[in-house]
Amino acid sequence: MSARLTILLGEASSSYLRDIFRVLFGNGLGQAIGLASLPFLSRIFSPRDFAVQNLFIQFVGFASVILTWRYEFLIALPEKEEHARALERFVLFSAAIGVAVGTPVVWVLRKELAGLLGESELASYLPIAVASASLLSIAVALQNLTQRHQNYRLSSLSEVISKAGYVLVAFIGGWLVDGPWGLLMATAGGAILKIALLWTEQKPNSRPTPSVSSGAILDVVFLYRKLAGSISLSHVLMALTAAIPSIFIAHTFGNEVLGQFALVATTLFLPSALLGNSLGQVYFQRAAAAWTKGESFQGLWSRTTQWLLVTGGPTYLITWVLAGRLYPLVFGAKWSSAGAYATMLVPAAFFSFLTSPLDRGSLVVGAWKYVLAWHMFRTFSTGALVLMAENLEWTIERFLMGLSIQMSICYLIDFWAGNRFALRHPPRGRLETSER
């Protein structure tokens, strides 16, 4: 593994490689804990409970964007520590105000919102979604601040603690209360434990905390408004893209089918999420370093692609062959439909695995218009597929086959664009990435 990473990343300092391993280890162990718990959770909770959780998480995703406008993702960018702290304070303030204002609003509109999402049972749970979204945003802000201070050990440990907290809360909730309460509270539970751990990094004894005035906060927020707007709009489109199929399945085929689909989405695309958060960070740093030197990062793109093909190709081929048998065997007999659905979605999962670590090349070259255009195309093509399925009265199997093809096309477009970005050379006199 070490030799492969060295080949992949080129010459690097031992401390840098150590940080890479910490990120990979933390994310990997956290995801392993989640995967190991699923065979047990799938026997405690019903497919309907997983369906409710799927729709709940979609709503939490929308709420997170609205509450903090994704400024938590920008904390690593400022050159000055006080500017990073200003962004952190803004996120904390926005999250607190969001809970105070948003929770009563959602409570009043809970039945209407649940109807839009296609599940009336959600009306009982939506008011806690705003608090869950706030906690997730705060956790991301603190983790980015921790990584800014190069404390990757603590950052990786927070991933493990968060996932362990998620599983623990889900088990306790499932034991104490009937229905999906345990699954829904698990999101907030994991975030709370992550925040508690990362807050130790804020201790004045370990690192002086610069004073931040309200004026400084407003100045930094204004400085990064365009970048935050681009990220926020992209995240809204991502949330829409994820929500559209779930809402359609809930309305058309019922929550039993949605629960089966939700389990597949959770497990089949997990390697993409893991690699996107781990190898993607490494690829982004190396590509940005080459770009600031006036060089293309085509060689890095090629080496990374080769590694992904060698690793992902056999893995997803085996998954495609065995998914129909594995899902009922691992998760229980009631999940047999999930195995059939997974077989149909394997191609999309593979192309997601191939492109997720490479999609940050657009950020390196500052191609913000492409980022938004691609997300818009993906969202509208997903909506068009749903309209086609509804008008032609497709079965769930035909819809999932169409969804797999549509997602694969989107990922292949992004793969091609990533290669084109890697071939670029920075304009003379402008070697930094956009808006820095």
Question: Which properties best describe this structure?
Answer:
single chain; 436 residues; mainly alpha; 2 domains; 18 helices; disordered C terminus
Descriptive report:
The protein is mainly α and 436 residues long. The protein folds into two domains: 211 residues, no CATH class; 211 residues, no CATH class. It contains 18 helices and no strands. The longest helix is centred in the C-terminal third of the chain and has 34 residues. It is globular and about 55 Å long. The N terminus and C terminus are likely disordered.
Total strands: 0
Largest sheet: none
Distance between the termini: 34 Å
**Domains, number:** 2
**What class, by secondary structure content?**
mainly alpha
Oligomer: single chain
Estimate the strand proportion: under 5%
Radius of gyration (Å): 22 Å
Chain-averaged pLDDT: 85
Following the backbone from N to C, one meets helices and strands in this order, namely HHHHHHHHHHHHHHHHHH
Annotation field: number of helices: 18
Coarse morphology: globular
**Amount of helix:** over 70%
* Residue runs with pLDDT of under 50 for 5 or more positions: 1-13, 429-436
